[in-house]
């Protein structure tokens, strides 16, 4: 999600922006937002990326380091993309990732509790990480070292993709796909590699440790993990075509800068005042965040508004035989529910 959407909001390419991505998960929303800025944007962009899951936070940092640490504008995004989504990496990428991580760790210094000075990603972007080099350093070194055996990584990946209890779920994922996309989808599930269909896999010999738990070697994600989830597939196809990729080879489209573009003017300070943000899990922590926690009068008002807009709603709410259809109105009711006051309450906690 582009949380700025500047043409429809500020529409001022010189305006400074402060953004927060709380419980960010991966970097999709961050990249979508930064790449959505106009080419003539000249303001200062400050971004706070926060996640309580240590492997996730460290993976995000390494992806940022990969995007900014190399002079070659082609190699950085390719390393970041495969580190993000592929189970195996070329041996050269392991060395480059390890070098980027060690450079960053050496710059930050040991034992600091205050924010270290900004670390230059590019000539226009910096990253700041307030960290005590304990568990964080260990995790960064592990993720950047790629020490999992490739054979074990392949076997664990295949085990997860072929869990017997998930066979029906996996089959359903093919249902709405075009025939060519089914083939590409199957190839990614089989190999775990974000490469063009039919590409040579032989250079990819080093396991991507960031996708596997250090001690047990277990896969971090579930069997449905997919590089295309969370992206607008129409935008991915359109962007991929600009680089000459075929719309039929949908994972090649994602790899040809369809998902990751230039991440520029990025800074992550320890503390600042945020002008806008993306909070993905606040509704689970605030009772009145959804209509379920709202008062009866608010629910009645929203239900009446739905009935006025959609006459069929009245018959659903009055018919015990149509309970499932009536329950489906929950999403529509949340769209009409103004939860701005509960959100302000959440922010003050």
Structure description:
Strand 1 (17-22), helix 1 and strand 2 (45-50) form a beta-alpha-beta unit. This protein has helices at 28-35, 54-68, 75-85, 91-108, 135-145, 150-161, 167-172, 179-191, 233-242, 250-258, 296-309, 312-317, 323-327, 329-336, 340-347; strands spanning 17-22, 45-50, 88-90, 119-122, 125-127, 204-207, 276-279. The model is unreliable at 256-276 and 316-324 (pLDDT under 50). It has 15 helices and seven strands.
Describe the structure concisely for a colleague.
The protein has 15 helices and seven strands.
Helical content, roughly?
40-55%
Overall pLDDT level: 78
In terms of DSSP E residues, the strand content is 5-15%
In whole angstroms, how far apart are the ends?
A: 26 Å
Oligomer: single chain
DSSP helix count?
15
Total beta strand runs: 7
- Write down the secondary-structure element order: EHEHHEHEEHHHHEHHEHHHHH
- Low-confidence residue ranges: 256-276, 316-324
Give the class from helix and strand content and strand pairing. Answer: mainly alpha
Estimate the global geometry from the Cα principal axes: globular
Radius of gyration from CA coordinates: 23 Å
Order of adjacent strands in the largest pleated sheet: 2-1-7
């Amino acid at each position: 999600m582009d949380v700025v959407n500047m043409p429809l909001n500020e529409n001022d390419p010189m305006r400074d922006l402060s953004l927060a991505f709380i419980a960010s998960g991966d970097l999709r929303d961050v990249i979508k937002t930064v790449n959505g800025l106009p080419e003539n944007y000249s303001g200062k962009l400050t971004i706070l990326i926060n996640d309580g899951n240590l492997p996730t936070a460290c993976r995000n940092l390494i992806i940022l380091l990969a995007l900014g640490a190399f002079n070659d504008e082609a190699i950085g995004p390719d390393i970041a993309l495969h580190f993000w989504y592929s189970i195996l990496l070329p041996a050269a990428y392991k060395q480059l990732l390890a070098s980027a991580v060690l450079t960053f760790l050496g710059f930050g210094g040991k034992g600091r509790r205050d924010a270290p000075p900004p670390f230059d990603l590019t000539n226009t972007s910096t990253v700041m990480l307030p960290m005590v080099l304990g568990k964080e350093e260990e995790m960064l070194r592990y993720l950047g070292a790629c020490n999992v055996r490739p054979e074990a990584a392949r076997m664990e990946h295949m085990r997860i993709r072929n869990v017997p209890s998930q066979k029906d779920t996996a089959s359903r994922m093919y249902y709405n796909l075009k025939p060519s996309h089914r083939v590409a989808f199957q190839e990614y599930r089989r190999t775990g590699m974000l490469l063009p269909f039919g590409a040579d896999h032989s250079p990819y010999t080093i396991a991507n440790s960031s996708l596997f738990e250090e001690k047990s070697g277990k896969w971090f994600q579930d069997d449905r993990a997919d590089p295309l989830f969370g992206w607008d597939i129409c935008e991915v196809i359109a962007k991929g075509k600009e680089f000459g990729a075929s719309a039929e080879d949908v994972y090649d489209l994602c790899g040809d800068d369809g998902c990751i573009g230039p991440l520029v003017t990025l800074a992550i300070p320890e503390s600042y005042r945020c002008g806008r943000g993306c909070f993905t899990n606040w509704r689970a922590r605030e009772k009145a965040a959804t209509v379920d926690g709202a008062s009866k009068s608010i629910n009645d008002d929203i239900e009446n508004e739905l009935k006025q807009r959609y006459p069929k709603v009245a018959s659903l709410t009055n018919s015990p035989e149509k309970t499932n259809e009536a329950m489906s109105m929950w999403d529509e009711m949340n769209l009409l529910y103004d939860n701005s006051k509960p959100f302000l309450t959440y922010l003050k906690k």
